[in-house]
C-alpha cells in the first residue's frame, strides 16, 4: 500500500491551517530534543515564529539508553506546551512510546512520532493506524529500508494513510560519529514510496558542527523536509545537546535549506 506501484501520486499530508507536508513543498520541524520547562517552550516558540517555522518538535516521553537519564516531563509537559503552541499557531510533533499513551496524548498532538527504538513495535504501529493523526515513522536503529516500509505498511493497512518516513541515521561500524546518515535511503525511499520523506540530520550524525551539511545533502537527495534539534543553550540541554543547534545556527540553516529546496 505504501509502494509507488500501488499509488502513483505522491501523498500530501494536511495538518490544517494551510500547512501541508509532501512533494512540492519543504517542511521544517524544529525544537529541543526534550521539553524541559514552560520558559524553554516560550523561548523556542518565539524563535520558530520569527523564523517562519510552523512545526515544533520536542520529547515529553524520552527513550533513553540509561534509566537514570532525564526521561521527559510526560503529560504535564505536553499540556503546557500545547497551550502555548496553540496560542502561537504552532503545530506539535512528539514521540509516543506505548499504546496506552496514545489516547491521553491525542488532543494535544498534531503529529505522532514513532522513535527509532519503536520502529518495529507492531502493536504500537497497529494502534497508530487507527488514530486520526499523521505519524512520522523513524527508521530503526539497525533497520533496513524494507523493514521501514513494512512498518509503514502496518499503519497504512490499519486505515491511517497519513504517514511520513524519517531517515535518522543507522548504526554502522563507524564510531567517529553517533550514527551513519543514510543519504542513499532518502533518494531510494522517494523512488519506492508515495509517502513524504523527512530527514533528521541531528540524530543522523549526532555532532552539531556537521548538522547543516547533512541537512543540505538530505534536501539534495530528495527529502520533503527536515526535523532538527534546536535549543537556546545547547550545552545545557537535558538531552542531545552535542547535536543541537543554537537559534543563531538554526536560523542560518533554515534559510540555506529553503534556498537549496528552491534550487533542487
Ligand atoms: C528524538 O527525536 O529525540 C529521538 C529520540 O529520536 P530517535 O528515535 O531517532 O533516536
Ligand atoms: Mn534527540
SSE blueprint and pairings:
Layout: E1 13-16, E2 19-21, E3 27-31, H1 38-51, E4 55-57, H2 74-88, E5 91-95, H3 99-105, E6 111-114, H4 122-128, E7 135-138, H5 145-157, E8 163-167, H6 183-192, E9 197-199, H7 201-205, H8 208-221, E10 225-229, H9 247-263
Parallel strand pairs: 3-4, 3-10, 4-5, 5-6, 6-7, 7-8, 8-9, 9-10
Antiparallel strand pairs: 1-2
The protein binds phosphoenolpyruvate (PEP) and manganese (II) ion (MN).
Structural account:
Residues 13-262 form the DAHP synthetase I/KDSA domain. It is an enzyme of class 2 (transferase). Keywords: Transferase. The model has no long low-confidence stretch (mean pLDDT 98). The chain has a single domain, classed as Alpha-Beta Barrel (TIM Barrel). It is α/β, with parallel strands linked by helices. The protein has helices at residues 38-51, 74-88, 99-105, 122-128, 145-157, 183-192, 201-205, 208-221, 247-263; strands spanning 13-16, 19-21, 27-31, 55-57, 91-95, 111-114, 135-138, 163-167, 197-199, 225-229. The two termini are 28 Å apart. It has nine helices and ten strands. The protein is globular and about 45 Å long. α1 packs parallel to α2, α6 (183-192) packs parallel to α8 and α8 packs parallel to α9. The strands form two sheets. An eight-stranded parallel β-barrel has the order 3-4-5-6-7-8-9-10, surrounded by five helices. A two-stranded antiparallel sheet has the order 1-2. Helix content is 39%, strand content 16%.
Which key features would you list for this structure?
single chain, 264 residues, alpha/beta, TIM Barrel, eight-stranded parallel beta barrel, two-stranded antiparallel sheet, 10 strands, binds phosphoenolpyruvate, binds manganese (II) ion, transferase, EC 2.5.1.54, 3-deoxy-7-phosphoheptulonate synthase
Amino acid at each position: 500500500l505504501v509502494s509507488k506501484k500501488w499509488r502513483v501520486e505522491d501523498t500530501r499530508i494536511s495538518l490544517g491551517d494551510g500547512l501541508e507536508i509532501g512533494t512540492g513543498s519543504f517542511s521544517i520541524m524544529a525544537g529541543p530534543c526534550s521539553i524541559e520547562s514552560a520558559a524553554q517552550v516560550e523561548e523556542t516558540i518565539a524563535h520558530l515564529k520569527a523564523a517562519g517555522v510552523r512545526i515544533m518538535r520536542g520529547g515529553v516521553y524520552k527513550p533513553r539508553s540509561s534509566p537514570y537519564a532525564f526521561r521527559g516531563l510526560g503529560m504535564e509537559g505536553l499540556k503546557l506546551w500545547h497551550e502555548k503552541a496553540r496560542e502561537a499557531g504552532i503545530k506539535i510533533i512528539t514521540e509516543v512510546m506505548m499504546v496506552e499513551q496514545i489516547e491521553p496524548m491525542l488532543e494535544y498532538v498534531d503529529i505522532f512520532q514513532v522513535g527509532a527504538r519503536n520502529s518495529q513495535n507492531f502493536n504500537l504501529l497497529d494502534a497508530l493506524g487507527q488514530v486520526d493523526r499523521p505519524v512520522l515513522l523513524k527508521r530503526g536503529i539497525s533497520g533496513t529500508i524494507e523493514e521501514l516500509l513494512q512498518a509503514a505498511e502496518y499503519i497504512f493497512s490499519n486505515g491511517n494513510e497519513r504517514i511520513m518516513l524519517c531517515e535518522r541515521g543507522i548504526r554502522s561500524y563507524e564510531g567517529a560519529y553517533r550514527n551513519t546518515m543514510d543519504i542513499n535511503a532518502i533518494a531510494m525511499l522517494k523512488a519506492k514510496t508515495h509517502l513524504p520523506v523527512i530527514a533528521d540530520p541531528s540524530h543522523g550524525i549526532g555532532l552539531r558542527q556537521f548538522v547543516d551539511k547533512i541537512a543540505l545533502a538530505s534536501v539534495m537527495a530528495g527529502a520533503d523536509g527536515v526535523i532538527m534539534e534546536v535549543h537556546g543553550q545547547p550545552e545545557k540541554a537535558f538531552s542531545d545537546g552535542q547535536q543541537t543547534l543554537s537559534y543563531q545556527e538554526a536560523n542560518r540553516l533554515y534559510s540555506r535549506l529553503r534556498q537549496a529546496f528552491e534550487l533542487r
